[in-house]
Amino acid sequence: MTARRTLIVGTGSIAAAHAAAVAGQGGRAAVVAGVDLQPARARDFAARHGIDYWSGDLAAALGQTWPGGGRLDLAHICTPPRSHVPLAVQCLRAGVPVLLEKPPALSLAQIDELLAVCESTGVNVAVVFQHRFGSGARRARALLVGGGQQDQGIGRPLVATCHTLWYRDADYFAVPWRGRWDVEGGGPTMGHGIHQFDLLLALLGPWTEVTAMAGRQARDTDTEDVSLAVVRFASGALATVVNSVVSPRQTSSIRIDTERATLEVEHLYGYTEADWTFTAAPGHEELAAAWTTDNTAPRSSHVCQVAALLDAMDAGEPLPVPLREARSTLELVAAIYASAFTGQVVRCGDIGPGHPFYERMNGTGAPWAAAADREQARR
Description:
This protein is of the alpha/beta class. Helices cover 35% and strands 23% of the residues. The protein has 13 helices and 14 strands. It has helices spanning 13-23, 39-49, 58-62, 84-93, 108-121, 135-147, 170-173, 188-191, 194-204, 302-315, 323-342, 356-359, 367-378, and strands at 4-9, 29-35, 53-55, 74-77, 98-100, 125-127, 157-167, 207-215, 226-233, 238-244, 246-258, 261-267, 276-280, 346-347. The strands form 2 sheets. The protein has an 8-stranded mixed sheet, covered by helices on one side. Strands 3-2-1-4-5-6 form a 6-stranded parallel sheet, sandwiched between helices. Helix 5 runs antiparallel to helix 11, helix 6 (135-147) packs parallel to helix 9 and helix 9 crosses helix 11. The protein is globular.
């Protein structure tokens, strides 16, 4: 078996998780190159991970002749969000599929630009939403999909909560690109909670409308540090989605109450089987047998998603979490900001070309920014 050649673009902190995920595939893939705008960082990354080739020039890496011939099979893009789309476009035009860290783009306009390049080149992009690939999430999805169609199933989903309550102090935001609309695209709604509510969307299906609030409670950032949303799904289910970086007791959680059961997961940065619970409704105790546990299953992680991605490549199938599917998650981000900043209900499909929140996530402007401008004008 020939290992698939992979390239890591951006050798900062998250790149280590990608390198470990590739190394954990039993020889099915290998990182053959690391690229970073800071060549010394690329060199150090290559040395730590036993990589022969490193560079500060992505074009050079994409044009490299590899031992045994052939081209790169996959590029992992692990850079700050502002550079995701231009780097992905460069890889696609070189014929190299992309695994793109979240958020995939800074706006819906950017993700549509990237989708157009995918269509014109015929080369695919997958987005990193690794919590979809843990065994608990796959089992929960199977129960929820079948629950409303079988008399003995768990029934249709009714209400859900999705919380990403994390803590990031001032030192965290001292990194120049953090907490800025023009580089990160948003605060915890865009960069932290997106993992958890992407899993919620994977479990509950399409969303239809959202009402939201957001605030800058305690951090000196351009973006929000807290958002809260009520989301209606096509199934009729209602969910609250809370994203925070000011919460000292950190947790990530999803709870889904259906007609006959409750499914829950609580973890921080990745769940195990032990983090899931299933509670049958009174009178439906027999449904407890519907939930099984595999204690040998790994923690949800990049390892799980990369394994699924390699399986898809081997089978000639679309890459998991394709860009088109990830767009729905990014559209929810835009809708949360649009509702929070305008006070309006935002429906799926409302935000398109010409809408102020299509080109940038802060759209008409964050309310606290406007207040600061008014205060400055008074002085």
